[in-house]
């Protein structure tokens, strides 16, 4: 019996020593990896957000029926509620509100801001406050899944009210709204900026009934 007990004790000591040495090796290996910057997992690079120029080109391509002088101000990812939710994007321009979704065969909506009769904040499923309902004399459009519903509502509401009051944004106000959404780097060349400013001057002059003398 004493012999068995002794052997058992010796065996347990051997196991403890072996496991300790294995743990030491494991900890040492972990420390070496953590001290090696090349061995560490680095976060994946984030894809850059689309610039204003990219969204403007997209807007022009999708809505070719709009006047050439019409300028995009901001766009909002959202969904149109029909039989199913049609994920897409709402485009707010100076005089138009447009929506496009490429789900199934594609859905496209173009509304002049003057045609809008009412705008209301709504809740999806009467619970989630992430929707806006826009009505005209003949249609109702329920847009949902806004990531920042209040900011989106305020942007569209402001442009709608300015249109009804016949008070277009000044150049400074327009570019402030654009840069608040897309940042200072709009991706536009100097020539493109000049072209947009020229189209704005021409459009405002026509609205006031003035004639621009040709140089």
UniProtKB/TrEMBL annotation:
Record has Nucleus as a keyword: no
Region (Disordered) location: 1-47
GO cellular component annotations of the record: endoplasmic reticulum membrane; endoplasmic reticulum-plasma membrane contact site; plasma membrane
Any one GO BP annotation for this protein: intracellular sterol transport
Composition skew (Polar residues), residue ranges: 1-10, 18-28
UniProt key word RNA-binding: no
Domain of life: Eukaryota
Cellular localisation: Membrane
Keywords recorded for this protein, A-Z: Membrane, Transmembrane, Transmembrane helix
Membrane topology: Single-pass membrane protein
One term of GO molecular function: cholesterol transfer activity
Main subcellular location of this protein, as a coarse class: membrane
Domain GRAM: 57-123
Protein's name according to its UniProt entry: Protein Aster-C
């Amino acid at each position: 019996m004493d012999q068995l007990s002794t052997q058992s004790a010796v065996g347990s000591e051997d196991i403890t020593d072996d496991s300790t040495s294995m743990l030491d090796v494991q900890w040492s290996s972990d420390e070496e990896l953590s001290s090696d910057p090349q061995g560490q997992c680095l976060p994946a690079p984030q894809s850059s957000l689309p610039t204003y120029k990219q969204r403007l080109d997209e807007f022009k391509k999708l809505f070719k029926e709009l006047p050439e002088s019409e300028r995009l101000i901001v766009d909002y990812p959202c969904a149109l509620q029909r039989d199913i939710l049609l994920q897409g994007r709402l485009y707010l321009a100076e005089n138009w509100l447009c929506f496009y979704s490429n789900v199934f065969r594609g859905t496209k909506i173009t509304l002049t801001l003057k045609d809008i009769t009412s705008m209301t904040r709504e809740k999806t499923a009467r619970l989630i406050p992430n929707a806006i309902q826009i009505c005209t004399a003949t249609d109702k459009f329920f847009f949902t899944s806004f990531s920042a519903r209040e900011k989106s509502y305020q942007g569209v509401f402001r442009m709608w009210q300015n249109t009804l009051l016949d008070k277009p944004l000044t150049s400074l106000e327009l570019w402030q709204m654009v840069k608040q959404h897309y940042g200072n780097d709009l991706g536009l060349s100097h020539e493109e900026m000049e072209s947009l400013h020229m189209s704005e001057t021409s459009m405002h002059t026509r609205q006031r009934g003035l004639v621009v003398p040709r140089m």
